[in-house]
Amino acid sequence: MTSRDPSEFVSSVRKPDDFDEYWQATEAETLAVPLNPRLQPVPLRSTPDVEVFEARYDSYGGLEIAGWYCRPRNFEGQLPGYLFVPGYVSEPKLPTDLAMRGYAAFSAAPRNKLRSNGVFNPGYPGLLTHNIDKRTEYGYRGFYMDAIRAFDFLSGLDEVDSSRICVQGGSQGGALTLLVASLRADQVACASAGAPYLCSMMDSASLTRSYPYEEINDFLRLHPDREDAVRDALDLHDIHNFVDRIECPIIVNIGLMDDVCPPETGFAVFSQIGSQDKKLYTYEDCAHDSGSGVGHDKVMQSFLDGHLNPVAL
Predict the structure, then answer these.
(1) Active-site residue (options: 237, 288, 292, 296)
(2) What is the distance between the alpha carbons of residues 268 and 150, in angstroms, rounded to a whole number?
(3) CA–CA gap between residue 295 and residue 253 (Å, rounded)
(4) I need a labelling partner for 28 at 20 to 30 A (CA). Which of 3, 9, 39, 151 fits?
């Protein structure tokens, strides 16, 4: 555990006066772009039990976004949906294991991931600080909308029961889980966010010297005169300012030795979550794995399956 008590941390994030207006306008711009969902079967990746598809849809700014969609080959009625959102550097998983558990599973690849990087590719490092001093042009604006549209893609499929859809991810995926559960609060049935990133971002840059947050410090060392503009842009995109809208049952897990996403920011964002059905799991001797190596994956699976009732193959 850190020498400081992370549960006593107070975030310095402030919600800009135009926060709601900004995101309402951003979502309106996104929804004005036809989703244009496409599924292409991928026989070489499919199995006798699971069908695999390459998925594509259109998102904010008209960019084409990619992903993987998997479903059981034989099923009756509608399936519960499982949206998996990726970490910062990792590419989206091929969710055949989730389909084996009885889910219609979509693994999203927001811009800068998978085949989506042909239209937007600031790189790693690079994504966190892409237009970081330009509040309306910050790279995560469109990235966030890609995750929202991924949920819309999944919920619109005929075989998916739109009343039984979860969202799950770790690190950047944890942040996107909280985002989707916030902006689709009336549609997400349950959610699980691990080691959430993009929370209290300016604080995180001072609490750790690990990347990706060190990208912020690198930028400010080169451009110290832009600190106020950077804070303004980050406050406008900080996940901390979204989560009071969350209504669904949700679990969050953090590692108290995490030097990538400081545990202080995990406690802070959890305290802001609006749901009355929420639980925080802390793992004292774990770092950025946030407990996955000591059994939290089973906790998560039990939680999600308990709410969505999939029928495993």
Answers:
(1) 288
(2) 27
(3) 11
(4) 39
Which member of 58, 133, 238, 258 is catalytic?
Answer: 258
CA distance 109 to 123: 14
- Is 171 part of the annotated catalytic residue set? yes
pLDDT digits (tens, 9 = 90+) for 237-261: 999 999 999 999 999 999 999 999 9
pLDDT, tens digit, for every residue of 39-66?
999 999 999 999 999 999 999 999 999 9
* Closest to 156 measured CA to CA, from 29, 34, 61, 52: 34
Size of the chain, expressed as the number of residues it contains? 313
List residues bridging with 279 in a β-sheet. 251
Q: How far is Cα 65 from Cα 299, in angstroms, rounded to an integer?
A: 31
pTM of the model: 0.96
d(CA 25, CA 32): 11
Which domains are delineated in the chain?
6-27+75-305 (3.40.50.1820)
288 catalytically annotated: yes
